[in-house]
Amino acid sequence: MKVSGLFESLTLSAEEDALWLLHELDPKDTTYHVAGALRVVGPIDVGLLTAAWEHVARRHLALSTAIREVSGVRTRVAAEKPIEITITNGSNLNESLHELTEAPFDLGKGPLLRVLLANEEFSTVIAACAHHIAVDLHSIVVLIREVEQAYLQLVARGEVSMPAPRAQHHDYVVAQRERQSRATAALPARAEVLRLHPLQTGSTIRPLPAGVPLARRIHRTVCAHYRRALIDQSKEISVTPYAWILAAAQTLIGRLERIDHFSAVTPTTGRRSTAMLEAVGYYVNLVPVPCELDRAQSFADAAVGSSRRAKEAFAARELPFPLLVAAAGGAAATSPRPGIAVTYERPSDRRFNALIGGAAGREFSYMDCPAQVVDLARPAPQADLAIAVIDDGEQLQVCFDVDRRIYDDAHGDAVADGFVALLEATLRNRELAVGALPLLDDRGRAAVLALGHEEAPASRTTHETLHAGVLAAAAKFPQVVAVAHHGRSLTYRELVAQASLVAAALQRRGVTVGTPVAVWMDPGVDLVVSALAILLAGGVYMPVDPSLPIARVTRMLADAEPALVLVDSERDTQGRATARLGELQEADGLPAPDTLRGDAAAYLIFTSGSTGRPKGVLDTLVLRSKVSGGASFLDLLA
Fold this sequence. Notes:
- By secondary structure, the chain is α+β, with helices and mostly antiparallel strands.
- Helix content is about 35%, strand content about 20%.
- It contains 20 helices and 25 strands.
- The longest helix has 21 residues, at about 135-155.
- It is elongated.
- It starts with 9 loop residues before the first strand and ends with a helix.
């Protein structure tokens, strides 16, 4: 499509104008470079792929135009070329990728999109980098979908036949001006809210050694069980999953940085019609959402409050972010960098979740071939901490983009693990007080937030229940192996996840505080999961040694009258209710609030009977020392 006539000169949207100003201040800044890469395994015709990229770039005005200032007004003009494509043999791939992502863009000439095609022996690496002023997140999905479609058409019949996009850049700008004119009445009120809830969270920026990338992306996965719980429980309290995620992020940052009032920014799309879903461009505004931390309220109430404040903020989403910041007393020309950004995504095309999430190695299908994401160095960060939760239809993929000047690698990992632990805890019991949600212990908190301010150590009891110690270890050392036996192992996170499922099933079967549950199993991973599940459910753990004579076991069961006997094989329980671990783990649900106190009965063991009939002795399970990263749960049970 030739850019001519009416489209030779197009004014910028308010958001694009702000990006242009930032670029003019530092043309070499890579903060607003958007890049992604994938490796396609199979026979790819690079010539046809080049033609497909060129065709798609010409379809969209945001790519086929450059930006110049004419009489003090920034406008779009015809670019010298819509796309720059480099083809290599892949021998110096890392250097080629670095040049692709780090080379500055000339917004006045274009192109605003660069593509690298690297031929390898059995695969082709496809990498693209665009300036943010030309694309947003949804645009990436549009581009890779259209390139795939154009390439397959060229392979099949030698030509591309795709309908023209139903909307272009100027459609958005015209509609945006109309909406903004109606939203200006809300500017004073929203500016006052922003003054009371500042964007910056007070983090101290530290210099980095030369050559160390400013940004780092951290990936975590939340299992399908918690994904379902997020959807279901948010419905139960009439909030969106986004509001739940926002409340969790608010709790994380508020508690770690000891602030009660701040704003988290969330990108909101300007694509208000199905036609705009086909357009490529930067159609996003940043909306500051106030966060208020009340440590005494339940998390459910915090999520409801986050939902209410988010609705109020999004009612004025047409207000340009730079204008709102200026009205609140910030820099009038440019947008200050937020302390925290929060998003929740459910992409319509789930094949591209891996690419959007940027998890290196994740596989999907592209151009009828297997493909996987290639890791790229992250550009300069746009926020101190950006948390993106992506629902891939099966699990929750959580991406953390962190500024290494704020969070070094150890701190970043701890924040990521802390957020996942906190989120999972809220889904196990949403009625817990915000200030009581498990996050990090004193040592972990001090390590995470050596950010220029001191925090007094939180008070803690000297005696800690066994299962509380395991939960703390799962929050602090989620990837550390907790239990291993005969080639099978579970990390602390996996152990807690499996035990939580069993605990929920036990509670539905009537197990509560003081209810004995017998575990008649050989030593192994299942025994540990069973013991922890009983404690999480509030019951009393009663171990039964498989080597004991059956007559003695029969007497023990008769005396204790357990509500259930958990077994790993056929056992003679004299007609008592039994269950295998697999049966209980198949059930859905999360355990009810933990009511087991450190001084409550939690452990029932029988004496040897050397002085007569064996007697059952109730005891508490209390740890005298903290769980460490090197401790295994089997050691704790020993």
